[in-house]
């Protein structure tokens, strides 16, 4: 039988079994059973609460599962797969549905045992309670450190951290403090943030991260308190616990959420003051100009450029982002100045057309078509039939009613950031439900020719990507990976290190492959 080993090292544990030990133990078991190990997938410093599909090794594991490349999955324990109970149960059921036997060495779990569901449920609950308890104890300990006069955060520009046996304290770093005062003075005078950044980089002043300065390092977010000019520590007020990271159960990605003001911890430490109150207030006055009552600037349209951040500058390897509507330009040259990068730009239609042809050519192969068919069939089985359509129709009706209520709220209260974000979320879910209803109805009729549909989609790739720009940007980035632009005399070339999604689709099986071509 063919076996796959999965191992994960968790960064949130103080004593973690090494990846090598996990893999060696699983290999020994496979050897005793006479199983042939066809692949080993690992994730380093990845939390068990992260979705399996969001981990590099986990993504490769799922790709092998969909392709039917193994019959046995070997793990040290189920918590290596996932600590989140819902995520763990979802992945296990997908594996078992495809006939994969799951064996865990440390906790004795075997998906062939009759009592596996009880064992899985109990262990999943224990793992989730462990994460909740760990978060609570960590937060309680940090609050205690502040009560004892210590700090609970990390490095802050302008200060050094002095540690003793009980905790850490800030002391002023006079060299960095000089540049903090200089930045505040320049902002108070009304200088453009970009020009301040250019001067800092030209003078060779190290940024908070030790590299070159960017506008974001200075301006940050007035609402979130990030950035040099928003750090209240510079006027002797230590602010902590103003936000938290929450994981989105749909995407598995973390997002920063502001806490209520009454949960903030603010402590006056006058000996850490670097900026005088008058200069601080002048900067606040400038920041407040053009802002709404909640401190936010009017919302901008989301980025829709297909290749923003994916293609890289030939001079500094910085991201190329949209400049105007028809050209990509180097973000470092724009945000950090000529000291960092002399600048580079390229025609948007030209580069998009050329790189999309690469995707189209590479995906028109039997392995990619087979994987697409496998994914579609699995989705159809999960969605079910008529009952699922009724549930989706009911949910669509609920969302349409909510959308109407939001429109009514705009008429009465005006458009706020929160209402605008919710409207966009509802519209995205409505589109998803519409697509799922079409898929379910198609599955109840004549069988789909998925290979033909897949090839037609590739032929009309540009139109398909325009239908959902945000998702398209993410998908193209996953397929292509980083695209390095190269200058060869008067010619511009693109060097592509095949992205993880395309490796899976074309059967690259974990190796980095690449290609290049003239643009």
From TrEMBL:
All copies of domain Recombinase, residue ranges: 156-293
Signal peptide: none
Domain Resolvase/invertase-type recombinase catalytic: 2-149
GO molecular function, one term: DNA binding
CDD domains: Ser_Recombinase (cd00338)
Coiled-coil region list: 389-443
UniProt keyword terms in alphabetical order: Coiled coil
Entry protein name: Recombinase family protein
Biological source species: Pseudomonas jilinensis
């Amino acid at each position: 039988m063919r076996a796959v080993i999965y191992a994960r090292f968790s960064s949130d544990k103080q004593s973690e079994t090494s990846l090598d030990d996990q893999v060696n133990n699983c290999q020994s078991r496979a050897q005793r059973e006479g199983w042939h190990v066809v692949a080993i997938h690992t994730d380093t410093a990845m939390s068990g609460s992260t979705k399996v599909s969001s981990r590099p090794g986990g993504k490769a594991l799922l790709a092998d599962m969909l392709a039917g490349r193994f019959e046995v999955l070997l793990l040290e324990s189920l918590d290596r797969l996932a600590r989140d109970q819902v995520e763990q149960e979802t992945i296990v059921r997908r594996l078992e549905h495809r006939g994969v036997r799951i064996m865990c060495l440390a906790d004795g779990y075997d998906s062939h045992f009759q009592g596996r569901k009880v064992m899985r449920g109990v262990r999943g609950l224990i793992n989730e309670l462990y994460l909740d308890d760990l978060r609570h104890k960590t937060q309680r300990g940090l609050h205690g450190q502040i009560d004892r006069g210590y700090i609970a955060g990390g490095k802050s520009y302008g200060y050094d951290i002095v540690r003793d046996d009980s905790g850490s304290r800030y002391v002023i770093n006079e060299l960095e403090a000089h540049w903090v005062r200089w930045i505040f003075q320049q902002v108070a005078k009304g200088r453009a943030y970009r020009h301040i950044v250019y001067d800092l980089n030209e003078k060779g002043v190290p940024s908070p991260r030790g590299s070159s300065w960017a506008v974001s390092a200075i301006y940050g977010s007035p609402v979130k308190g990030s950035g040099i000019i928003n750090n209240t520590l510079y006027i002797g007020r230590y602010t902590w616990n103003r936000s938290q990271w929450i994981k989105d159960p749909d995407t598995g990605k973390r997002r920063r959420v502001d806490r209520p003001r009454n949960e903030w911890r603010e402590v006056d430490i006058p000996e850490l003051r670097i900026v005088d109150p008058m200069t601080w207030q002048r900067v606040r006055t400038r920041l407040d100009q053009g802002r709404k009552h909640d401190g936010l600037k009017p919302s901008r349209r989301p980025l829709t450029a297909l290749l923003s951040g994916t293609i890289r500058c030939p001079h500094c390897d910085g991201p190329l982002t949209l400049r105007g509507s028809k050209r990509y330009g180097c973000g470092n040259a724009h945000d950090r100045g000529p000291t960092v990068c002399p600048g580079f730009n390229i025609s948007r239609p030209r580069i998009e057309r050329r790189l999309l042809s690469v995707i189209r050519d590479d995906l028109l192969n039997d392995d990619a078509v087979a994987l697409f068919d496998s994914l579609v069939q699995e989705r159809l089985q999960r969605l079910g039939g008529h009952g699922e359509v009724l549930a989706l129709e009911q949910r669509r009706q609920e969302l349409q009613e909510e959308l109407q209520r939001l429109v009514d709220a705009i008429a009465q209260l005006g458009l706020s950031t929160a209402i605008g974000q919710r409207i966009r979320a509802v519209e995205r879910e409505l589109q998803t439900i519409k697509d799922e209803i079409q898929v379910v109805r198609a599955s109840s009729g004549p069988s789909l020719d998925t290979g033909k549909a897949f090839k037609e989609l590739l032929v009309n790739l540009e139109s398909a990507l325009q239908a959902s720009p945000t998702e398209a940007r993410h998908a193209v980035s996953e397929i292509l990976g980083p695209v390095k632009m190269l200058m060869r005399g008067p010619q511009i070339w693109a060097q592509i290190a095949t992205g993880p999604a395309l490796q899976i689709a074309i059967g690259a099986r974990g190796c980095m492959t690449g290609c290049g071509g003239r643009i």
